[in-house]
Amino acid sequence: MASAAAPTTFSLLSSSSSSSSSSSSSSSSSASRSALLRLPASGLRSSGLRRLGFAAADPFLAAHVASKLRSLRGKGSRGVVSMAKKSVGDLTGPALKGKKVFVRADLNVPLDDNQNITDDTRVRAAIPTIKHLIQNGAKVILSSHLGRPKGVTPKFSLAPLVPRLSELLGIQVIKADDCIGPEVEKLVASLPEGGVLLLENVRFYKEEEKNEPEFAKKLASLADLYVNDAFGTAHRAHASTEGVTKFLKPSVAGFLLQKELDYLVGAVSNPKRPFAAIVGGSKVSSKIGVIESLLEKCDILLLGGGMIFTFYKAQGLSVGSSLVEEDKLDLATSLLKKAKAKGVSLLLPTDLVIADKFAPDANSKIVPASAIPDGWMGLDIGPDSIKTFSDVLGTTKTVIWNGPMGVFEFDKFAKGTEAIAKKLAEISGVGVTTIIGGGDSVAAVEKVGVADVMSHISTGGGASLELLEGKELPGVVALDEATPVPV
């Protein structure tokens, strides 16, 4: 456990794990909170470097970002540099007019039993790139997957997307019954300038996920150039995300993909400070890479969710029947030590909402984090922790959030997650850059109704995690490099 002698690192736990009274917890929490608000300047570094920003169809966009990112030094810069890619915004006029453009989008939307779209977020996210292309006279060949089909599976057809795409684009989108073959080639040949042809689910072919060169070549033969706007699948080397780039030039990033790189690479690698990261979720093991990567970059790290109990147990505290990864106790200890060494203020909750079973109707009560009784499990952060976390977030300039604070699917244990979402919405309104890094965090801000005020909502779960870990995404690496220019 971090001690009072380490002023830039706080676990927000009482220095004595034997204390279980509410008054003791309150006193300890208040002292910790007071100390946090007096963090030394070395722990909350400032930076004159401004956050990178993408403007749609800006011809100097990718080059500007490439130049900025190439100026970075230190661990992880190699991965960052390789993510500076040429943009669809660089392609206008003669470069697009009359050209057949293969666009890989992520239209993997949820459908109900009647094949109605229940959330069109990903469809709407793909529209800016498609509109840019059709407004410049391109012929758009739109490709995507849907679900996890095993061969041709009617319930995973992209047909239900046609009405919504047509409505959003203001033109009638044509639908092909396949993604390769003579009939598709005929439809492509008859496609007018400014027209859009939606291919059938590319994963109906097993060759897609195997990235077989011949299949990729068949897809590429339909077009003159390639645009990848499918961030959600960019961490996979599939035929339509990586393979086709070997046969189509230029191969560039769409506006959505580029925006993801702007925030998840640009803003995180070069943030306005103080920079805080909030990491939640059930297991430390699923977030090891993210935590380690963020410890290299952030000033403050807030931890929540089921993973915190592994950290508690590693510090000798009783966790009752809470979720613990016994084989990750040493890792938790090493991460606490690393935070201290890096001068990162690592915060764990001081109080918790505990339950006698994992159920929405469980009996519950609030206890200090050091006083979880046997047979009870922690399912949310408590009110004192909510206040502390909120106070700290109020001091920041950049925040990234990945993972809920508790079991927010159960209303009884959603208060912590919802409070964080509302606090991020509040600070977004005063100019703080707020980045929601995919998965359950996105569901949380949507549930609370504050998604629209966040600076950026990531559309990719696995891709967001891998990018935050500093990994290179095959679907991005395969795109043409941006050419840096003086800025």
Automatic annotation (TrEMBL):
Q: Which Gene3D superfamilies did the record assign?
A: Phosphoglycerate kinase, N-terminal domain
Which biological process terms from the Gene Ontology are attached to this UniProt entry?
galactolipid biosynthetic process; gluconeogenesis; glycolytic process; reductive pentose-phosphate cycle; thylakoid membrane organization
Q: What EC number(s) would the UniProt record show?
A: 2.7.2.3
Q: Which domain of life is it from?
A: Eukaryota
Localization, UniProt: Plastid, Chloroplast
Specify the pathway: Carbohydrate biosynthesis; Calvin cycle
CDD domains (UniProt xref): Phosphoglycerate_kinase
InterPro entries for this protein: Phosphoglycerate_kinase, Phosphoglycerate_kinase_CS, Phosphoglycerate_kinase_N, Phosphoglycerate_kinase_sf
Disordered: annotated span: 1-30
Catalytic function, reaction form: (2R)-3-phosphoglycerate + ATP = (2R)-3-phospho-glyceroyl phosphate + ADP
Pull one GO CC term from this UniProt entry: membrane
Where does the UniProt entry say this protein principally localizes?
plastid
Keywords annotated in UniProt: ATP-binding, Calvin cycle, Chloroplast, Kinase, Magnesium, Metal-binding, Nucleotide-binding, Plastid, Transferase, Transit peptide
Q: Which cofactor does it need?
A: Mg(2+)
GO MF entries: ADP binding; ATP binding; metal ion binding; phosphoglycerate kinase activity; protein kinase activity
Quaternary structure (record)? Monomer.
Q: Which family does it belong to?
A: Belongs to the phosphoglycerate kinase family.
Query: Any idea what this protein is called?
Result: Phosphoglycerate kinase
Q: Give the species this sequence originates from.
A: Rhodamnia argentea
